[in-house]
């Protein structure tokens, strides 16, 4: 059984998630990378439409993103080149992070953080934005110099993703 | 694979680094090596994709990653991670492709393009390669419009009921 940590921890972690979202929305990707632990695992499974009694809805092995520190740095480096065409000109994003629930884990200084996220994404002169709705189950860890994201497990609330790509970080 | 192909055909495949193709009309495959670390040789996988039309100017795409059945689990895991890094909605290659395809489709309906011809004539006069071990029509170099001509000709055959 998990227990809710005290208010100051919950507030600090929520602020951390807001700052993480702001770094992404302001496209400060190097700042964002600094908010990730070295052993970061960032996994976005594919959601499958199944009957209500099925034992899983998130595919056990299919992934939209399956990243560690090294591959996330590759993605950021790509964005810093002249050749990331899907993001040139860049998407405008707004991450709305809400419903933050913080639970202690068995590991000291590590917390399981559930949240809901809605991401608005607009490109160029297209008047129709994309909306990505997703849940996140993060592991947030107290590091030497502040909080760090150690694990992100998140999935979109769609099985068929209603956008032409997913070229942003969620 | 060696059971189904002749030694000459295996020899041709053994030198292939990248292969692309389409089964008419909408099932494509791509075989290529890709590495999680830029610059390294990487692992080879096959991705198959099905373009499922849902209306004018709209399609759903299904994408699969295939790995050799008898490969060690470590190889399969690495190949799938490489596929995920490169392809799919968030793939570092495929993100750009989706953007391009969307824009190309929109541009193709523009008034400027309506007065243009699309001459798929590249390689039309190439004689078939003589020493190819497989079946099929093979020309060299591989950069040519043969497959475009095949696709649109076949589509035309269906339209006029000549299939």
Automatic annotation (TrEMBL), chain A:
Top enzyme category: oxidoreductase
GO BP, sorted A to Z: 3-phenylpropionate catabolic process
Record keywords: Dioxygenase, Oxidoreductase
CDD domains: ring_hydroxylating_dioxygenases_beta
EC numbers, comma separated: 1.14.12.19
Keyword Oxidoreductase carried by entry: yes
Matching InterPro entries: NTF2-like_dom_sf, Rng_hydr_dOase-bsu
GO MF term (any one): 3-phenylpropionate dioxygenase activity
PANTHER family xrefs: 3-PHENYLPROPIONATE_CINNAMIC ACID DIOXYGENASE SUBUNIT BETA, BLR3401 PROTEIN
Family, per entry: Belongs to the bacterial ring-hydroxylating dioxygenase beta subunit family.
Protein name: 3-phenylpropionate/cinnamic acid dioxygenase subunit beta
Taxonomic lineage from the root: Bacteria, Bacillati, Actinomycetota, Actinomycetes, Kitasatosporales
